Amino acid sequence: MNFASVCRQLCQRSSIAANRAQISALFYDHSAASRNDKGGTIYLNRRSSNSYSASKQRDGLSIGETYRRNMRPPNAIAASSSLSASPTSSLDSDLIETSSSIVKNDDRLDAINVSLVDRLPDALQPYMRLMRVEKPIGTWLLFFPCAWSIGLAASPGCFPDPYMLAIFGTGSFLLRGAGCIVNDMWDRDFDAKVERTRNRPIASGQITRLDAFVLLGGVLAFGDFLLMQLNTYCVLAGVGSLSLIATYPLMKRITNWPQLYLGLTFNLGALMGWAAIKGSCDFATCLPLFAACISWTLIYDTIYAHQDKKYDAAVGVKSTALHMGVNTKSYLTCFTATMVSGLIATGVMNDQTVPYYLAVGLATSHIIHQIVTVDFENAEDCGKKFRSNYVVGLIIMAGIMAGSLLKSEKDSSKKNISEIGRASCRERV
Q1: In sequence order, what are the residues at sequence separation of 6 or more whose Cβ sits closer than 8 angstroms to the Cβ of residue 21?
Q2: What is the pLDDT of residues 307-357, one digit of tens each?
Q3: Which residues contact 401 (CB under 8 A, 6 or more apart)?
Q4: Across the strands, what pairs with 103?
Q5: What's the Cα-to-Cα distance from 357 to each of 96, 167, 348, 351, rounded to whole Å?
């Protein structure tokens, strides 16, 4: 190697170092500006970053170097791409391609990024979000009263009917989805003014009311098909519930107790589940259960309503959260007492055993913990406490199943004999 070639290599290396210094300066200038302007911050798509990092590790770059290169702002990328004469141009072209994976919206939650809805085609996603498919807690809360009733109707020593659980589980998913569609169609203008709901598909303009109406028709058609698999008593009760679902959003405009109306709507399964197994409703068992479920709905949905109370007050929407105000915890304590009383009365009328009452006690302690620890001024905490109510449903369901398994056929026979005896006495009189 002669002296001239050595000089050319030294010049080339110094040019590369100068270019890199220029790019680095642009990057750090942008970082300083980003700290002053939060809106200018660029965020990286994790999956794209991970795959890109892996590819650059294969090319001999460290993860840290890859991350720094990925995070370079557009002006730095433009500056580096203009240095086409330098050996770094191939790397810069890769970085230009990678810049398309940068996510500019930092409001999307990680949980939603990995959800099933986000893996669906883009055209379907607004419809699934309209039905709240990515938020299954509503389906669970609608299903549990049905499941409890089915479990209570099971024969002594037997598990609940799995076929009926499947029918009511699917129906709960569809009915909850239909309720969300109706609610969003009613509340389009209100939702657009509330921070938590402004991105809902109808409020944000992703789909029209006509689109939502067509989806509602399809959901109700499938729901009707499932309803026809049940007996006449359940069919009549299910058809009657549709009017409650359609008018619930209206209650938020005319009464301070829309959560009570929601309780009536949401918990008809406490009556239908028993009737689906037995052919008719035993009101001595099911009415206390129905009252307990309504009280439970008042508890969790009042906590839920505290998330949006300042927006509701501004737009004129009414709720128990606004009505109860600083006395909310006192009200919720009373509802808890009503719920527990209803569950105990249900257990007595159903000849439940020790596991059932232990489950009621455990569920009560969970609800009391919610009431004591919830921060009504913290929307995130209210949402967390609301979602935790699926634990209450699972505890009660486990107690019903365990209690029914411990029932003996002998106890059931004694009850039947006593009922026959009372009937014969009435006939003699």
Answers
A1: none
A2: 989 888 888 889 999 999 999 999 999 999 999 999 999 999 999 999 999
A3: 151, 159, 160
A4: 43
A5: 64, 27, 10, 11
